[in-house]
Amino acid sequence: MKLALFDCDGTLVDSAALIHETMRRTFEKFGKPEPRFEDTKAIIGLSLDIAIARMQGRPHVEQQDIEMTAHYKSLFSVVRQDLDYKEPLFPGIREMIDAICGREDLLVGAVTGKSRRGLDLVMETHGFDRHFTVARTADDCPSKPHPAMVTECCDETGMNARDAIVIGDAIYDMQMAKAAGAKAIGVAWGYASVDELIANGADAIAYHPNEILRHFS
């Protein structure tokens, strides 16, 4: 048996535009300079409070970051409706998930910096909730690259970390996988560059979702 653990934002769904607009409105509310799109993409994958602190050049979360996090969460569904934005799947993701979930030798899970509510919304929107056996979110564990999301998913499913494969687009996904003792597959269609993924521990790079399947043979 293998355990496939997928990141969500930038790996399964293209959510950068939605995240950036919500972040932009949050920074505006607190009188902060408008963040660049590149700055937003660079923190996708981190837990929200840490991401907001990092975007302001701080390594640690302060009280205002917590307040901005709460405001961001209150805005997210509003912005999603304003933009009529459903966090679309990247091309080829649905076919890849369907193929993986049809195999008896694989369990599928999610490890994401999203909130539990945010992940559930994506799963329900795209009909993936019936496919994913286990999940850990920013509500459950320390932020990536801490290994807890991976180790807790392994514990819940009775799997060893060496039989887990983390699939993600961020350097934090690669670092998390390595810290947990799992294999790391970087995806080239997300928000980090291939060079960044390799430098941070990717064992392989998938340039299209169908290439992920070969790593479960």
Polypeptide structure, described:
The protein is of the alpha/beta class and 217 residues long. It is 44% helix and 12% strand. It contains 9 helices and 6 strands. The chain has helices at residues 16-29, 37-43, 48-55, 63-82, 93-101, 116-126, 148-157, 171-180, 194-199; strands at 2-6, 106-111, 134-136, 164-168, 183-187, 204-206. Strands 3-2-1-4-5-6 form a 6-stranded parallel beta sheet. The mean pLDDT is 95. This is HAD-superfamily hydrolase, subfamily IA, variant 1. InterPro entries: HAD-like_hydrolase_sf, HAD-like_sf, HAD-SF_hydro_IA, HAD_2, HAD_sf, PGP-like_dom2. GO terms for molecular function: hydrolase activity. Pfam families: HAD_2 (PF13419). Keywords: Hydrolase.
The gist of it:
The mean pLDDT is 95. This protein has helices spanning 16-29, 37-43, 48-55, 63-82, 93-101, 116-126, 148-157, 171-180, 194-199; strands spanning 2-6, 106-111, 134-136, 164-168, 183-187, 204-206.
| Overall radius of gyration | 16 Å
Count of extended strands: 6
Structural class: alpha/beta
Which of globular, elongated, flat, extended, rod-shaped describes the shape?
Answer: globular
**Unreliable parts:** none
One letter per element, helices H and strands E, the order comes to EHHHHHEHEHEHEHE
| Span of the ends, CA to CA | 11 Å
| Helicity level | 40-55%
**Average pLDDT:** 95
Major sheet, described briefly? 6 strands, parallel
Number of helices: 9
**Which percent range describes the beta-strand content?**
5-15%
**In what order do the strands lie side by side in the largest sheet?**
3-2-1-4-5-6
